[in-house]
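User: Here's a chain of 179 residues. Predict its fold as tokens.
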Amino acid sequence: MFLKGIKDKFKYKSAVKFLKQELEKPREGVKRDKGVESIACIVDLDKFEDTNAIFDLVEDFSLRPSAVKIIGYKSFYDKNSPYATPVFSDKDLGWNGDIENSYALEFLSREYDVLINYYTEENLMLQLMSIKTKARINVGFGDIDKKFNDLILNTQITDFKTFKNELKKYLLILNEIKE
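Assistant: Prediction complete.
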């Protein structure tokens, strides 16, 4: 038990070091054409549980039903309990910032047009997922480090409808979507 605590502490320190190194590097953009065909969303399920609201993006952006991918973070979850959204937690932290979760690895294996960082508190696991996800445009809240997002929307985390409307407005301005 004691050794596990020390091991977890070293894993955490190595992940923080990895995150700092990645933030200092220029971000590699995804080489995709303009337009929104796929959306990824990293959600803090401890603060926002209504992930079904996120699937409204399919209709609002005229996307294929499989174009929206969501993964959720819970500080603690039971692996035997069923969750509607694929989940990862602090227990999935590996060495050097690796995330040892099959849902997270599948999520990270794809490229997206838009990544929505739907969380408002700095959290190592959420930030690691954000930095490792390959997307052309990152969108999130102003409460976290500005280096994680290209577009920052200042809305409440509990008000997804306003967030969605603001996102649509700015993607129209950027000529990413058509009305």
